[in-house]
Amino acid sequence: MTRPINHAWQLAQRPTKNIDRDTFALVEESVPELADGEYLVRNVFLSVDPTQRTWIREEPSYLPPVGIGEVMRAGAIGEVVESRHLEFPVGSFVTGLLGWQEYSLLREAVNIVPPGIPLRPMMGVFGATGITAYFGMLEVGEPKAGETVLVSGAAGATGSVAAQVAQIQGARAIGIAGSAEKCEWLVKTAGLAAAINYRTEDVEQRIGELCPEGIDVFFDNVGGATLDAGLKHLAIGARVVLCGAISTYNELDAPTPIHWYLNLVVKRARMQGFLVLDYLDRFPDAVMQLVVWDMEGKLKWRDHVLDGIERAPEALGMLFSGDNTGKLLVQVAPDPTAL
Amino acid sequence: MTRPINHAWQLAQRPTKNIDRDTFALVEESVPELADGEYLVRNVFLSVDPTQRTWIREEPSYLPPVGIGEVMRAGAIGEVVESRHLEFPVGSFVTGLLGWQEYSLLREAVNIVPPGIPLRPMMGVFGATGITAYFGMLEVGEPKAGETVLVSGAAGATGSVAAQVAQIQGARAIGIAGSAEKCEWLVKTAGLAAAINYRTEDVEQRIGELCPEGIDVFFDNVGGATLDAGLKHLAIGARVVLCGAISTYNELDAPTPIHWYLNLVVKRARMQGFLVLDYLDRFPDAVMQLVVWDMEGKLKWRDHVLDGIERAPEALGMLFSGDNTGKLLVQVAPDPTAL
To answer: Which ipTM value was assigned to this complex?
Structure first.
């Protein structure tokens, strides 16, 4: 029987700084016959996320590093096309760390996509990035009605949801993003109180102007100078939510420093990191709430889809130049749930 | 009637870096006759604390800056020697922000020293530094039995109490201090599990060796490179208590940066500042608990007394060179409670 051909991106070498053409290698191989207990997923969308940059470092982070020659670890979503596993019948849709490849041959359990939810939002607003925003903002940031919330990377997949989750709580959200178009989307479409264009404006000065009584919650995706600018303008009792620090992920040995951490003392504030994986058992609740908010029209989101498996490394680079608008996906097969 | 002569240190100019002989000016003046509602305190001990360095900057911190020509703000303890205020009779002992001076003429209420407590420990282990350690460790650090607690500035007035409070909770405390003698005191007298001499040892490497499973609570007085070294070795769920950052207080425009804050994400940890003033209404509870622990022999402490009002600025400098051993006081009158 003719077997499907899988194309997969393997980690070829660890980058010392930026991702380049030598970081990954695209390999081609026939998918083997399934053994008992295995099932085969044809991936539709591959996820491209800043945290993937940290997974290809030499040093372990919250997950072990991807090994040289291993398929690049990544979230993906697809359809079960062959199965010798009772829990994953042909025709079901699944999502998990399926990797940057067209076909994933699996034995272990991954998540089944709830019926009726299209695949694209399941990879963004209802997926890991949206859930990250949900728990990070609600459980770590704890915004209250009337408070001022600052979000960096605010036009991104996580930041845009985080800012809107804060507004749903009655807080006033201000976003930092990298283009006039993104800032306009944040204010006019997502309904934020204001947006700061970090490419054309003095971020620290604008934060001071827009938050005259200080920031109560700072949801930071960026780190470095952006984090520092927010730290200078904390309100008393502020919560700084560290979601990640894209500005530092290409710095191998010398992460961009911050200087204003002592404001945490003066303002009796806390800075706290979190990982969405720690909330795994509560993912269904988060997805349900996000779906409800979406149906009520309270959540605006965008995704940005590149076509073809060959574009995955390029897509990862786009995150660091800020060229994507919203959740970045690579589509590697037709979407059976597309309207 | 002949009036007492007061000697007082006024702020003469704001230092750009280290305290020097031009920072303060010693002035002499007669104490005026009291008006109704006023009372006069003859100070016995003046307090010398790292935070005083932050009070003489131009920028407001958690308290407004001391003005040029104003008496230097400082905690002190003394005896009421004249009074036209019913709540503060002659012969009572009081403590509060009485300033670097021999006599304080007051109208407002300050704290009355509970009868039976000698003045020296009331200025240290039962005073602001001990209470800072108490609330910072218990309320912000939340050490649990079996956890590993790292304390920097561990031989100092606050750090030494913080480390022992953690041990009383059943945690294993490790201290960082600046001499072999201080390290020996921490281990042999205060009973810490280990001590690191930051002048002769590689602090980060030693933390790694002494805390192979990471630090659960890091109570940091120092900031900068010391804070960074601890951040590299956090355990999952760690709490970093920012009590202050003596290593940065002489840096006016460029506080020493930290690089490893992203470990707060990887370790799902929090870094939180606090001010003991926020716990003002609970000071009596803290003092009572500290007194009980002291009576039970569970708290070891040292103070370091310099004689004469003229030594106050020199004493403040000693804190930054680390030449003091324990709570640093300047004695400006005989101690009526001395044994």
So the answer is: 0.90
